[in-house]
Amino acid sequence: MHSLKKIALTSISLMVMGLLASCSASSDEATELTIYSGRSEEYLGDVFEKFQAESGIKLNVRYADSAELAAQLLEEGGNSPADLFISQDAGSLGAVAEAGLLKQLDDSILNQIPSKFSSPEKVWVGITGRTRVFAYSPSRLQDLPESYRDVTNPIYKGRVGIAPTNGSFQAFVTALRINAGEAAAEKWLRDLVANKPQYYEKNSMIVEAINAGEIDLGLVNHYYVYEVSKALGREIGVKIGFFEKGDLGNLINVSGAGILKTTGKSEAAAKFLAYLLSPYAEETYVKEVQEYPLLPGVEGPQGLPRIEELGAPTVDLNSLKDLRGTQQLLIKVGLL
Amino acid sequence: MLTLALLPLFYLINRVRTISKADFLAILVREKTVEIVLNTLLLALVVALASLLIGTLFATLLFASDLKSKGFLLAISALPLAIPSYVVTYCWIAIWPSFRGFWAAALVLTLSTMPYSLLAAFAALRRIDLVQIDVARSLGSNRFEVFTRIVIPQIRNSIAASTLLVALYVFSDFGAVSLLDVDTFTRAIQNLYRASFDRQSAALLALILIGFAALLVFGEARVQGKTSVTRTSARLRDELAFLTKPVAKVSIFLLIVGYALLALAVPGYLLISRLISNFDGIDFASLLRATINTALVATLGALIAMAFALPLAWTIINSSSRWAVVTERAVLISHALPGVVLGLSLVAFSSALPWLYQSVALLGFAYALLFLAKGVGAARSSIERVPQGLKEVSTTLGVSPLRTLGRITIPLAAPGLGVGFLLILLTAMKELPATLMLRPTGFETLAIEIWSQASINRFNEAAPYALMLVLIAAIPTFLISRPDRNHQESRAGRGLDGVA
C-alpha cells in the first residue's frame, strides 16, 4: 500500500507540473505562431530557430505526417489553433484548400517563385521541388526504362518495387489520370499489377530492397537514394534514373505552405512564409534533403540535373488534390 | 461514463450518415474488402491461438515445476510487452529485409502479445482450488485428466478473456501490419485518411471493424462459463509441483529463455548497436524531456482509466440488468479501435474547446478511452475475488456499504487494481497514432521522437529514444510479472478464507 500511495502522490505532482507547463505553453500572444508541419524537425529545425532569433516571434511547431495533419485540419475546421500549414506534398495542401480553410496569399510572396509551383487560387505556395524518378541497381539492371510505360514491360516482371499506399505514388497516379485519362491510367495500373511488382509501405523501403538485392527497379522520389545512403552512412548500390524528357514519370511535386483562415496573426504568418522562401532557407533545404529549390538563383543539389533540365511534364499541381478519384481507381485495381 | 467511452462510435456514425449509396457499395463490394476481412480475422485468430497455447503451456510448466528461478523466467518472458510493435518490426526488417507478409506479422504479434496470455494463465493457475485436485487424484484420475477436467475449467474464463484482448489488440495494431505489408482493417482505415482525406469511407471501414470486434466479444461471452470459483483451501502451491526432475526443470528453463531470446535478441541487438554507432549524436536534453513527458502523460492516462474503470466494474458486478452486460461488452469492443479513429473523433469533439484541445489532459483522456478495457477487466476480476462473506460480515456489523467499499473491498482488490493501472501505463507509453494528433503542440514523447526520426530513415537517431522507451516500459512490465505481488494477494486471500 505504501508504494501505491507513493506512486499516486508522485504521479499527481507530475500531473500538476504538466498542466502548469501546458498552460504556460498555450498562452496566446501576437508574438507566437502555431505551425502544423508535415516536414520533419531535422529538415526545418535550423530554419525555424534562425527565424525565431531574427524576428522574435516564437514558433510552436506540431510535427506529424502531412496527410494526417490535413485530415486533422479538416476535422478542426473553423476551430483550428494553427496559423500555418507546411506540407510535404501538393495533395495535402490541395485538400485543405478545397475545404476553404486557406487564406489568399499576397502576390509579393507568390511572385517569388515560378507560378506553376503554387496554387492557381493563390492560397498556397511551393517551397521545394521533388521529382519522381526510378531507382535501380546498376549491376543487375541493364535495360533501363525510358518511360513510366516501360515499367509494365515483362522484362521487369517481379523486379519492380512500388509503394501504392504512399502519397508520392498516388500523386503520380493522379497526374496520370488527369493527363492520360481514366481509361489509360486504369490500363497502366492493371498492367503494372499483372507484372507482379513488390509492394512496400515507404519509398525508402524500396531503395533498401534494391540495395539488398530483393528487386532491381523501383518508382520513388529523387532524394530517397541520398537519404537511405546517408542513414546507412555509406555508398549504396542504387542509382537514380530519369525517364526521357517530358515523360510523366518525371513528375515534379512540391512541398509547400499556406496560411489558415482561422489565424488571427496574418502579418506574422506572412512574414514567416516569406522567410521559408528566403535564399538562406532554400539553400538549407538543398543541403539537408537534396531537394530542388524553387527560388530562382539558388543552386540545386549537386550531382543532379538542374530543375529546368529535368524535362518534367506540365502538370497542374493543384489537380493533384483529386486523391479521392485516385484512391477509388487504386481500390478498383486492387492496389489499396 | 459509458457515453464518454462511446464517443468514437457517435463520431463514426455521424461521418457515415452522409455517405452516398454508390460510395457505400464501392467500398463494400470489392475484392480488396474480402482480402482485408480475411487478413484481419485470420491474423487475429492465428495470433490469439498461438498466444493462448504458448502462454498457457508456459504458465502451466512454470506452475507445475519447483524452479527457483520462476520470478526471473516470468520477468524475461513478460519483457517483450515493453517493446512497441513498430519498433520490433523495424528491427526485424533492418536485419532481414525480406521479412514481410502475413506470417511475419503473425510472428511479431505473437511474440509481443504472448506475455498477456502467459501472465493471465499464471495468475489464474495460482487461484485454482487445490482440494479438487487432491480429490480427483485420490479417485484415480491421472495428471492429464486432472488438467483437462479440473484445471482447465477453473482457468478457462481468465484465459478466454486474455485471448479476447489479444485478438482485439491485433485488430487495432497498425505498426507491424503496415511495415510488413499486410492489409488489415486498421491499415486500410489509416491509408484512407492518409491518402485521400476520405473520412467517410474510413469511418465506414471502422464501423465494420467494430462489428467484427462485437462478434468476437459476444462469441467470447459464450465460452465464458459460470463457474465462479471460490477457493476453499489455501495450501502451498509448491506441494503441487510435480516437474521436479532436473531434466524437466532445465528443459523448461531453456524453453522460456529461448522464447525471450527470440523476442528480445533482434530488437535488443539492433537498438544497442545503432545506439553505440551514434553515441556522440545523442541529444540528452531532448531524451530526458521526452522520457519525462512519456511517463507523465501515460501515468495520467492510467489514472483516468482506472478512475473510469472502478465505477464501471462496480456497476457491472452489482447490477444484473442487461445494461451491465452491454456496458462491459461495449468497453471491450472499444479495445479494437485504431488509435487514429479515436484521435480524430476526439479532435472533432474537442477542437471547439481551446482549454481542452491538445492539452495533456485530453491526451490522458484519450489513453484512458483506448485502454479502458484493460482497466475494467482488472478492476472487475479483482473486486469479484473479494470474498462475499467478508462484505456480509461487515454489513452485519452495521458498517455502511460505502465504508465497506473503502475499508474492505478496495484494499483487498488493490493489488489487482494496481496491475490494471500498470498494464494501461505500459500500453499508453507505446501509443503513437492518437498521441500524434492530440498531444500539446511541442510536447514530444518518446514514441513521437521515434516516429519523427524513423519517418526520415534516421534509425541511428531513433535508437536512443526506442531504447529509453523499452527501459521505462520495462518497469511496469516487471512489476506486473513480479510473483511477489501474487504472493501478497494469496496471503491476503488466505486470511480471508479463514474468516469466511
Mind explaining what this structure looks like?
The complex is a heterodimer of chains A (336) and B (500). Chain A has helices at 2-26, 41-55, 66-76, 90-98, 107-110, 167-180, 182-194, 203-211, 224-232, 266-276, 279-289, 323-332; strands at 32-37, 58-63, 84-87, 124-136, 160-162, 198-199, 217-221, 239-241, 252-259, 292-293. With 336 residues, chain A is α/β, with parallel strands linked by helices. The termini of chain A are far apart. Mean pLDDT of chain A is 87; it is low at 20-29. Chain B is mainly alpha-helical and 500 residues long. Chain B has a single domain, classed as MetI-like (MetI-like fold, Orthogonal Bundle), CATH 1.10.3720.10. Helices cover 78% and strands 0% of the residues of chain B. Chain B is built from 24 helices and no strands. The model of chain B is unreliable at 485-500 (pLDDT under 50). At the A-B interface, helix 1, helix 2, strand 2, helix 3 and helix 8 of A face helix 11, helix 14, helix 16, helix 20 and helix 22 of B.
Count the E strands of chain A: 10
The main β sheet of chain B shows up as: none
Name of the CATH superfamily of chain B: MetI-like
Radius of gyration of chain B: 23 Å
| Spans of at least 5 consecutive residues with low confidence of chain A | 20-29
Oligomeric description of these chains:
heterodimer
Mean pLDDT of chain B: 85
Strand content of chain A: 15-25%
The H/E string of chain A reads: HEHEHEHHEEHHEHEHEEHHEH
Largest sheet of chain A: 10 strands, mixed
Radius of gyration of chain A, taken over Cα atoms and rounded to an integer in Å: 22 Å
Gap from first CA to last CA of chain B: 34 Å
Secondary structure blueprint with pairings:
The complex is a heterodimer of chains A (336) and B (500).
Chain A lengths: L1 H25 L5 E6 L3 H15 L2 E6 L2 H11 L7 E4 L2 H9 L8 H4 L13 E13 L23 E3 L4 H14 L1 H13 L3 E2 L3 H9 L5 E5 L2 H9 L6 E3 L10 E8 L6 H11 L2 H11 L2 E2 L29 H10 L4
Parallel strand pairs in A: 1-2, 1-3, 5-6, 5-7
Antiparallel strand pairs in A: 3-9, 4-7, 4-8, 4-9, 4-10
Chain B lengths: L1 H4 L1 H11 L3 H8 L2 H34 L5 H9 L6 H11 L6 H24 L4 H9 L4 H30 L2 H5 L5 H12 L2 H25 L22 H32 L6 H35 L3 H12 L5 H12 L9 H11 L1 H13 L3 H9 L4 H30 L2 H6 L7 H9 L4 H23 L1 H17 L1
Helix pairs in contact in B: 2-12, 2-16, 4-7, 4-9, 5-13, 5-23, 6-13, 7-9, 8-9, 9-12, 11-12, 12-15, 13-23, 14-15, 14-17, 14-18, 14-20, 14-23, 15-18, 16-17, 18-20, 19-20, 20-23, 22-23
